[in-house]
Amino acid sequence: MAQERIKYLDGLRGLAAMLIILHHYALAFLPGVFSKAAGTYHLPGSGELWLYNTPLKLPLAGIVWLFVFLILSGWVMTWTFIQMGRRRQHLIRSSINRYFRLVGPVVATGGLIWLALKLNLAFNQKAAEISRSWFWLGTMWRFEPNFLIMLKQSLVEVYFKIIPMETVYNSSLWVVPFFFLGSFLLMAVLALAAWQPRWRWLIYGISLILLIKTWYFSLLIGVILAERVSLKSKISWSKSWQIGLFLGFIYFGTYPSWTDKTLMAGSWYDFLPQVNLANQAMFYPALGATLLLILLMGSPRLQNMLSQSIWIGLGRISYSLYIVHLLIINTLASFILVAASPWLPYPLILILILGLCLPLTLALAYGLYRTTEVRAIKINWPKV
To answer: What are the Cα distances from residue 105, in Å, to 142, 170, 195, 217, 321?
Structure first.
């Protein structure tokens, strides 16, 4: 059972990574999907407005897929802990080793970004003038490259705090503290629950309440789901339950995450009450991600779909894929937009960008995975 579940969880991680990347391409080149601002529409018939107002933007709704990542992190860490007999020594070792697994791709990609800036290969500022993604694409890389600052960020800072987009080399790294510091947080919660197993569910519930105003609460959702899956009773949802969970995932998961409530007039989400967690747009995407994971728990068909080799392969390289993709967006993808915009219609340029840049991103991520992550996985320190 453990091996099967690891397969489909890896598959979901691979799918989520690809859709987060598509989300970032949309932020860069279709900003109207998120800003609903006049002058930011590039698709025929103001297609971005349709995507903003309806669940049609599911493949571009990056926030829900980020929550999937976070919930999966808590799930996998807890599941591994359970399989290891709930030994606290395993928690200590895995939490410490987490740094070595995170740092390799971060440093390597930071070095490539520094080199791209030194060689004047960054075209994101010029591309932002065309796509009008000033709030995202145009915010990055507005500084002079400094190798020591890049190293400081890559080796130390990004694991403990969120660095502003205006000064960070790789803005994708804003989520890294949640995975790094979150592993130590989960270590404490799981160790306490292992020490007092009778109070396990109460400990989880109190921890979830205490963290509900932070991004870390999604890790606790993963803990709870993993504990439920570990029970002997098999989970199998009826067809009607699966449909309901799936529709709930689509609807709540596509809640607009980049704008305030006033811009939702006329959308499918206008009547939903605003619920503030760490920010006003977290609750509904987090709910959508949770519904997807609950669906996955009791849907053998979905488990089999996500256990296919293509998703498993993407799952293995998902971390490197996430870390490296902004390098391609800010260089090659932005250059294609700048060079092709006088000659080709905008939708065709988007197709060209995705057709050229996604395969390159996958190849670069695989190389990063083989040269950094695979070696880091072999590190097993300390010997406790």
So the answer is: 23, 11, 35, 26, 9
Total domains in the chain come to 1
Task: Please say whether the beta carbons of 297 and 226 come within 8 A.
Answer: no
Query: Does residue 234 form part of some domain?
Result: yes
Q: For residue 237, what are the domain limits? A: 2-377
In a domain, 383, yes or no: no
Residue 168: inside a domain: yes
- Residue identified by tokens 């065309």 is 130
Tokens at residue 275, please?
Answer: 């619920």
Q: How much is the pLDDT for 42?
A: 78
Q: Who has greater pLDDT, 337 or 192?
A: 337
User: C-alpha distances in angstroms, 236 versus 10, 242, 301, 303, 372?
Assistant: 20, 9, 11, 12, 39
Q: 121 with 331: CB under 8 angstroms? A: yes
Please tell me the distance from the alpha carbon of residue 179 to that of residue 195, in angstroms, as a whole number. Answer: 24
Count of residues in the chain: 384
Residue 36 has pLDDT above 80, yes or no: no
Is-cis flag, bond preceding 382, omega within 30? yes
Q: Tokens for 8, please give them.
A: 């489909």
Residue 382 lies in a domain: no
Percent pLDDT > 90 in the chain is 56
Q: How confident is the model at residue 206, as a pLDDT?
A: 92
